[in-house]
């Protein structure tokens, strides 16, 4: 299969698919991806399925978004982070493999509102 990033055309959720994910991501990551927490949900997303991950803070859920962006560079991944610290963590994951990132914080977006000005005229 020449285009391995095409959604739904490869059985990423099989043991062989998970092994392929590990092989393709390993050179791009500074850590070894966790199979159950990161690669299995990633496989579902790559196949166009929904996923739900419930895990403790610091377990590596953020890596699922990051690795999806690495596997699908032709797509845009939008992550809404509930805290500035999580946003900072997301931006710290930037590498030579994933350089595009924009950080929009509520404090910046609402600046005109705080000044009492209106964008409606």
How would you explain this protein's 3D organization?
- With 121 residues, the chain is an all-alpha fold.
- Helices cover 42% and strands 0% of the residues.
- α1 (15-25) packs across α2.
- The N and C termini lie far apart (54 Å).
Provide a concise account of the structure shown.
By secondary structure, the chain is mainly α. Helix content is 42%, strand content 0%.
Topology diagram in text:
Elements: H1 15-25, H2 35-46, H3 62-71, H4 84-92, H5 106-109, H6 111-115
Features:
mainly alpha, globular, 0% strand
Largest sheet: none
Q: What letter string, H or E per element, gives the SSE order?
A: HHHHHH
Q: Structural class of the secondary elements?
A: mainly alpha
Per the principal axes of the C-alpha atoms, what is the gross shape? globular
Uncertain regions spanning at least 5 consecutive residues? none
Our estimate of the beta-strand percent is under 5%
């Amino acid at each position: 299969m020449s285009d391995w990033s095409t959604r739904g055309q490869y059985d990423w959720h099989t043991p062989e698919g998970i092994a392929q994910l590990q092989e393709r991501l390993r050179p791009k990551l500074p850590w070894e991806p966790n199979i159950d927490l990161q690669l299995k949900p990633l496989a579902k997303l790559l196949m166009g399925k929904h996923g739900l991950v419930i895990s403790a803070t610091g377990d590596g859920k953020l890596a699922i978004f990051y690795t999806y962006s690495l596997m699908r560079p032709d797509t845009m991944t939008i992550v809404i982070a509930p805290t500035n610290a999580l946003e900072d963590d997301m931006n710290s994951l930037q590498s030579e493999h994933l350089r595009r990132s924009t950080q929009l914080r509520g404090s910046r977006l609402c600046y005109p509102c705080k000044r009492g000005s209106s964008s409606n005229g």
